[in-house]
Design brief:
Distance between the termini: 178 Å
Largest sheet: 6 strands, mixed
CATH topology of the largest domain: Immunoglobulin-like
CATH architecture of the largest domain: Sandwich
Strand content: 35-45%
Shape: elongated
Number of domains: 3
Helix content: 25-40%
Number of helices: 4
Amino acid sequence: MRNNIQLKIGLVVGLIFGCLLIVNKPVLAEPIAVLTPSIIDVSGKARDIFEYNVKIKNQTTAKLQLYAIVNDIDSTAGELAAADVGSLDRTGSLSSWLEISRGVIGVMPNEEAVVPLKIKVSMYALPGKYYATIKFANGANRELAEAADALGGQPELIINLAVEDNIVERAENSDFSVGHNLNLVDRADLHVDIKNAGNKDLMPKGRVIIYDRKNTEVGVLGINEEQRLIVPTEKGAFNMSWTSHGKLGKFKAKLEVEYGANGKRDLQDTIYFWILPWQMFLLFGGIIFALIFSLILLFIRLVRQKIRRHLAAQEKDPVINLKFKQRK
């Protein structure tokens, strides 16, 4: 009898516990919208562009006002907080390569909206795998949408992008110039700016060859003999001086630079300049002054000689002189 009572009590407790489990069992909420696609898995190289149309199907009976919230995902740290696109690292942030409407996206009940998405892989992208998420959070404004996103459960698009190793070696001669086109000393100061317009460190090497007016080589200046590296997007400035050692006149400077580990490439340019030291100006000025002064003296001498001949002719021929006076 006692055992029957205990059995009944056990059955009652079990039924009550089972009912509590059923009542407290969480009910999975239906998503407010369905995304197509929900995952984008793609691979490419720097400068590649991928375009998609993301379809958003409203699963509710109310109008949705969705805002795209873009976040990078770190493979170890997980989802990163959203940041201003302008402050992101263009070499390693997938979210900075995404172009999608940041305004409100209205979707009526049981209807579908299409949102263009563009992935523009940065020219400076480093090889590797990158992850990002785009959540379409519902809210009357962006602030409320971000608050809803913080609670979770918003429609989400996951993007996996593998950037392949695409080495771009390209240099640009952004400036090859001389300090002064006319140099009043026997020295010319030359300047070269070389910009790394690729995505790999460069070590340019080369020379500047100086020619005189007869196109005869009269000097050679080395460039980057110290073997400096120029990182992507940066410029390398190289300054040098050439002394003419008494040579004067117009000179030509020819730039010849090589760079690149995967097949040599070259940069070339040409400029012209003059070297006329101030001492030579004084000498030339003195010579010109002496010539002008000599010409003036010669002119005065010729005029005096002409006057003397004229007076002498008058003294020898008074009749002519008389006629001359009568004519007047």
